[in-house]
Amino acid sequence: MSEKAKWYVVHTYSGHENKVKANIEKLVENRGMEDVVHEVAVPTEDKIEIKNGKKKVKQKKIFPGYVIVKMIMTDESWYLVRNTRGVTGFVGPGSKPIPLSDEEVRNMGIEEAIPEIDIVIGDTIKVISGPFESFIGNVKEINLEKHTLKVLISMFGRETPVELDFVQVEKL
Q1: How large is the average pLDDT for residues 126-133?
Q2: What does the pLDDT read at residue 148?
Q3: Angle at 60 between CA 54 and CA 64, to 5 degrees
Q4: Which CATH code of 3.30.70.940, 3.30.43.10, 3.30.457.10, 3.40.50.1000 fits the domain covering 6-108?
Q5: For 61-85, what is each residue's pLDDT tens digit?
Q6: Confidence class for position 156, pLDDT limits 50, 70, 90
Q7: Phi, psi of 52 (to 5 degrees)
Q8: CB 139 within 8 A of CB 149
Q9: How confident is the model at residue 1 (pLDDT cuts 50, 70, 90)?
Q10: What per-residue string of b and e applies to 18-49 under the rule 16 or more CB within 10 Å gives b?
Q11: Where, if anywhere, are coiled coils annotated (predicted)?
């Protein structure tokens, strides 16, 4: 089964999102289905509220009444999620769940897209934006998590290390 897990939107009773998330996770664990149902998320964002002159950061649900599930769609996984207490159904036409596109997943901030980069340590690059634009340099380090490169750029006759974003450089 080389099928890739995708994100599906599940409709829940309003206010039951966290309960549904916990219920699905418990059922998945009890039935040993971690290889099929990978992750359950309730997308939230931080909202800053000011009450009585005090700043409070509150987590606000971005989509009240919905839970996002990353899973491989099988009859068994569909049944498990669909019949979880608090779930009213999958989002999609009829009873056919439609996975979110990669772009929708990125826009929701559920999963960071890992930029692919065809640059390796030792490559010569040209800076295409930012304060070092049009400088040429050699890649000394690549940080995939931060999406940055450490590049030695020749400035004023000496090599100067600078940290650049993946999007600021192109391979020569």
Answers
A1: 91
A2: 87
A3: 155
A4: 3.30.70.940
A5: 888 999 999 999 999 999 999 999 9
A6: confident
A7: 50, 40
A8: yes
A9: very low
A10: ebbbebbbebbeeeebeebbebbbbeeeeeee
A11: none
Matching CATH number, 123-171, of 2.30.30.30, 3.40.1190.10, 3.30.2000.30, 2.60.40.1180? 2.30.30.30
Cα–Cα distance, 172 to 120 (Å, whole number): 12
Q: What is the pLDDT of residue 31?
A: 96
pTM: 0.60
Q: State the chain's mean pLDDT as an integer.
A: 88
Average pLDDT over residues 51-61: 82
Q: 7, 70 in Cβ contact below 8 A? A: yes
Residue 60 to residue 130: CA distance in whole angstroms: 35
CB 86 within 8 A of CB 19: yes
Distances (CA, A) of 13 to 36, 65, 77, 79, 154: 24, 6, 20, 18, 60
